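REQUEST FORM: STRUCTURE PREDICTION
Request ID: SP-0412
Submitted by: Lab K.M.
Chain count: 1
Length (residues): 340
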Amino acid sequence: MRITILFGGSNKERLVSVASAQALHRALPEADLWFWDIRDDVHNVRSEVLLDHARPFEDEFVPGGTSMPFEQALDRARAEGRVLVLGLHGGRAENGELQAMCELRGIPFTGSGSAASHLAFDKVAAKRFAALAGVTTPAGVPLEEIDRAFAEHGRLIAKPARDGSSYGLIFVNAKQDFVAVRHAAKTEEYVIEPFVSGIEATCGVLERSDGTVVALPPVEIVPAEGRFDYASKYLAQTTQEICPGRFSSSITARIMDHALRAHRALSCRGYSRTDFIVTGKEPVYLETNTLPGLTAASLYPKALKAQGIGFADFLRDQIVLAEKAGRPAHSVFSEACPRA
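STATUS: Completed
RESULT:
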């Protein structure tokens, strides 16, 4: 088995992915490093090139090294018996496409499978499935009803239906903000919801290789300047992420229960992280991440630490789980075509 950290990607979250890969490589120093660039090539990366990249959240990563087309890299991964540790976020890396390409080849990979990834990545569909599991979810607002909803609720929030790391958030605090929402919705689908005032929280779920599934301690988020967008997550020095969160025992139990319900309703595997707004006595569902950030500053590693689980131990167990889920007896790409 050859462990390979795959990172980068062609979407806006590739910067976060590089920071995740740095943390993954420090925990798995023996792993090979493959960088997936925006041209759909995969580069072999030297350890020092990755670790010396000082500002991953701000500066594009330049991999150097030899490269090969993306699908050729996957064929090579299958031929060489590699297991892929996914240090990727968003886009084709998290919407199920990469996972399907690996599954068709019989390549083991960490994280959820293609169907769960595709379902969770769609915020509208994920919200429906979470609601089926008894999780409290906010109402949706059709774009054509934004005026009525604003008059009723006073504040709204709009976000891309299929994106992460809080990219594209629009806080609708005045009628002037309608223009920004309508403009953004011309290029991609947007989810519009009543603004829910409360405490931001997130809760990781961990599936172990022995089959047990547990919720990790919830994290309480106190964002800089009142909003948890990309800058607050990765660039601001004043954002506070408190783990375990300062919630009552009953609220903590509700958050953990709802995170487990969402994880199971979406058929996630390995690990996930579900975001909530805690208002009054109830956590309100926002979204589930099937490939949450694993940077040194990310929320999921903080929860692992609070649970007493070492980051390297977590990764090695996820690799075992990936091996169990992958490596079928045959794959689509190894079957001979039937004769006419």
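NOTES: The two ends are 37 Å apart (CA to CA).
Reviewed by: T.R.
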